[in-house]
Amino acid sequence: MRAAALGLAATAGLALAIASAAITRPLHAANAQEERWLAVAPGRVEPVSGLMKLGAPVVGLIQEVLVKPGETVFAGQALVRLADAEARAQLASAEAQAAMRKRVRNKESTPSGAGPRRRAEDGLADAQAALFDARAALDKAVAERRAGRGADSDIETARTQATAAQAKVEQQAEELRKVTTDAPLPIGAEGQLNVARSELQGARATLDKLTIRAPLDGTVLQVNARAGEIASPQGPQPLLLLGDMSSLRVRAELDQRDLDKIKPGQQAVVRSDAFRGRDIAGKVASVAPLVESSRTAALSQRNMTDVDVVEVLVDLAEPGPFAVGMKVDVYFRP
């Protein structure tokens, strides 16, 4: 009886030891795995440019949406056009006023010593008009290409001309600054012409505000604008989301307690639950100098709230399988 009891106890002890070993081995393996990383931070994938949120600068009726999600665009390309009939009428009035003032000015003799300034002012006005026309020609070339009536070469030609026109404006503005450093302000017809030209530039700027343009070369990620709707600067969502998709990065939230461990240039690995077993290499691009409250809804598997974090940008070596907006975890290497 006693031998049977001893045998039973030995069997139980052996089973407990085996079970204990089975539990301990995975824990030790997991701990060894986690020790490879200095820190882990949750984040989201975004374009290398960040997400560009484009809204309406003024309240207006959306007249035309010129792009679709997934389209690539170039800096300066028209994306959304607001109703602009009134602005065009004001521009036509300002152009007529400036032309009339110039005719009156030209009937007067040029005051002694005012020749260089007059030529510089006329040169700048002509350059500004040429730039406005070049941008309009570029918009027309893009519209023709979308309608199937134009070619990519027409757009490239128009872009080249617009770039040259912008450079000419800058050159003429610099020449005007040189000749007007110490010169007295123009009076009479010359002064009235300058006022009319300023109003003309204001009318052009007002019209240009009604066309929302791409601030950079990139890809249209989302379009929330529809023709016939009212757009407002205080709208609940941007009209468009745009980003440079030539490469991707992760905007991660690093626990402030790990701040001293992470530096720019540090290597990292990025993982997503959507692609288990797939690691994408990354490198820390920057560490924000500001500690703030977490904006991430779900902090990975840590299940913490009210965590103070530091924003860290991690450039990805390759896009991998990730999509913009995807939740990921960044593992920082020692």
Could you write a compact summary of the structure shown?
The protein is α+β, with helices and mostly antiparallel strands and 334 residues long. It is elongated. 41% of the residues lie in helices and 25% in strands.
Keywords:
six-stranded antiparallel β-barrel, single chain, Elongation Factor Tu (Ef-tu), domain 3, 2 domains, disordered N terminus, alpha+beta, 334 residues
- SS-based class: alpha+beta
Number of helices: 5
Which outline best applies? elongated
Q: Please state the average pLDDT score.
A: 87
Q: Cα distance, first to last residue?
A: 60 Å
Strand content: 15-25%
- As residue ranges, the low-confidence spans are 1-32, 297-302
Reported for the largest beta sheet, the result is:
6 strands, antiparallel, barrel
Radius of gyration: 32 Å
Topology as H/E string? HEEEEEHHHHEEEEEEEEE
Quaternary state reads single chain
Count of domains: 2
Spatial strand order of the main sheet: 1-10-13-12-11-14
- Approximate helicity band: 40-55%
What is the number of E strands?
14
Describe this structure as you would to a colleague.
This protein has 2 domains: 36-49 and 245-332, Elongation Factor Tu (Ef-tu), domain 3 (Beta Barrel); 53-241, no CATH class. The chain is built from 5 helices and 14 strands. It has helices spanning 2-34, 85-107, 115-146, 152-179, 188-209, and strands at residues 39-47, 52-54, 60-65, 72-73, 78-82, 211-213, 218-223, 230-231, 240-243, 248-255, 267-271, 280-293, 308-316, 327-332. A 6-stranded antiparallel β-barrel has the order 1-10-13-12-11-14. A hairpin with an 8-residue loop joins strand 11 (267-271) and strand 12 (280-293). Mean pLDDT is 87; it is low at 1-32 and 297-302.
